[in-house]
């Protein structure tokens, strides 16, 4: 299997602070990774590197086999799909849902005056349908609920048929029903052998969809543990990661975690 992402000794330093610190990590084709870690651990910073929007201060990062710093990132970007709250914010609320997805084919956030092929439109509708949003195609993006907007963003991130899909906290802010619906859909995507390699940042192990194969655990910018999820997402590692005693369980291919009760 080829690596779609390869970081070697990567550090990002800002104002003397290490946002990520000597991270060595690779993602191979077909793998589905979740990144967990406390607030400020460097999760989003790693996704920014993977999406080619941030270059390491030290170390080397290769995305889809191309080393950052010696490749035209504008050619690379359409091959990487990304969904995040920050990107959702930048999408025009007055735009039609279908156009929000369609514009991704051209790396734009508004329709201007491009013309789209019928095949582009078919693909956008197909992706909206996969995310359960086909009925909303003609609605204005700004009229959608937060959960619906997130699903549209994921459809959009798949529009260019990327080889790597990055999801930054896709379930953040969703209610229980919205979370479960999204987790189920992401589980279906993870199980699709034609789907791209996936990396998802999450704050909660309950949000890890079925079919996710690997976990990267970060603490204070450093890798605490990385590897196959069954062996790596242990109570011990999760407790070290979050700095308090936690018990993690897996049941019916879903994960849950809770703190140990305090004793007086
Ligand atoms: N330009 C900057 N200068 C200094 N520190 C920064 C800068 N950008 C980010 N940081 C810090 O880097 C650390 C890592 O940030 P990052 O957003 O990657 O963490 P995260 O794990 O995604 O956090 P969260 O779970 O809260 O979203 C944070 O402590 C943040 O305050």
UniProtKB/TrEMBL annotation:
Assigned keywords, A-Z: ATP-binding, Nucleotide-binding, Transport
Alphabetized SMART domains for the sequence: AAA
Keyword Magnesium included in the entry's annotation: no
A Pfam entry, by short name: ABC_tran
Domain ABC transporter per the UniProt entry, residue ranges: 5-245
GO MF terms, alphabetically ordered: ATP binding; ATP hydrolysis activity
Superkingdom, taxonomy of origin: Bacteria
Family to which this protein belongs: Belongs to the ABC transporter superfamily.
Protein name: ABC transporter ATP-binding protein
Record organism: Yinghuangia soli
Organism placement in taxonomy: Bacteria, Bacillati, Actinomycetota, Actinomycetes, Kitasatosporales
